[in-house]
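Private note to self, pasted from the team thread so I don't lose it. Backbone tokens:
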């Protein structure tokens, strides 16, 4: 794995960094971008972007990042999908633009903390280091504006399939990729008909009882561990299921994903956290406030 990480970084990532370091051209596009409304948050958490896969909603994420500013941005794992890139290189311009938007935030003073997940585990080798202004850490502790201590983790180590049967996880990843491809065809047809975004893969998984049981077991395992470690709450990703709820006496936050639900977790200046869904149709933001907190998006379920 270390050899692959080094080869990946040398052959692809370094050339990307050089190209992405170029400043965007000034012109009418820049002027239009400057006129777009921008939201300001204290903190933004995103995860499960899966750059390098066809299922990644990179354009929606670029739009979200350009229209939402923050003091601190947490990248909570699976930002780049090393599992897929290892076997097939897929990196369109929109994926490079995601990286550009993150680098722009660093240039503007945003602190960016990257907690690698299982799909981008190659970057765990660099935990404790800072690369291009991005702090890489195995886990992080975030203090909210109202003084709560939140553990920030990807969460894959609470997944028994990942921990004890990694071959099965790769098989599941392949099946999920096929489902996402079918999802794209469904989305294409709905756009022709003028219909809003709807996730076929999420709908199918939602009908599977075992998938829902898996979500509950994962959430409970995370919450129990966080309570035992003395934290007030947790922010995680991994299962592609956005939620805010109280479990085992701690506040469980999952920021969702950017392959199906296009969700982020945001904190305001008072320490209030909520799930923000960046809708596909017209890229209009839909907010789910924390006080309704089963706060689970019906289309956000695990890979």
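Design output:
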């Amino acid at each position: 794995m270390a050899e692959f990480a080094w080869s990946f970084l040398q052959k692809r990532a370094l050339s990307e960094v050089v190209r992405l370091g170029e400043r965007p051209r000034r012109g009418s596009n820049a002027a239009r971008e400057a006129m777009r409304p921008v939201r300001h948050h204290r903190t933004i958490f995103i995860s499960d972007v899966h750059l390098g896969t066809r299922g990644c909603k990179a354009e929606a994420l670029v739009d979200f990042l350009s229209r939402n500013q923050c003091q601190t941005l947490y990248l909570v794992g699976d930002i780049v999908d090393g599992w897929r890139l290892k076997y097939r290189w897929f990196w369109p311009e929109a994926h490079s633009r995601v990286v550009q938007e993150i680098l722009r935030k660093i240039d503007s003073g945003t602190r960016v903390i990257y907690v690698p997940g299982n799909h981008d585990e190659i970057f765990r080798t660099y935990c404790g280091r800072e690369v291009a202004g991005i702090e890489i850490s195995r886990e992080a502790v975030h203090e909210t504006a109202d003084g709560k201590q939140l553990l920030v983790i990807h969460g894959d180590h609470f997944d028994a399939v990942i921990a004890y049967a990694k071959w099965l996880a790769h098989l599941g990843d392949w099946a999920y990729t096929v489902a996402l491809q079918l999802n794209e065809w469904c989305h294409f047809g709905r756009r022709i008909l003028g219909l809003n975004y709807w996730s076929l893969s999420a709908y199918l998984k939602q009908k599977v009882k075992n998938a829902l049981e898996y979500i509950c077991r994962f959430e409970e395992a995370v919450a129990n561990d966080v309570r035992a470690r003395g934290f007030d709450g947790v922010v995680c990703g991994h299962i592609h299921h956005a939620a805010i709820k109280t479990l085992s006496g701690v506040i469980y936050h999952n920021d969702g994903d950017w392959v199906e639900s296009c969700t982020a977790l945001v904190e305001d200046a008072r320490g209030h956290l909520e799930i923000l869904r960046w809708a596909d149709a017209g890229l209009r933001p839909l907010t789910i406030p924390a006080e309704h907190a089963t706060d689970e998006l019906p289309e956000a379920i695990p890979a």
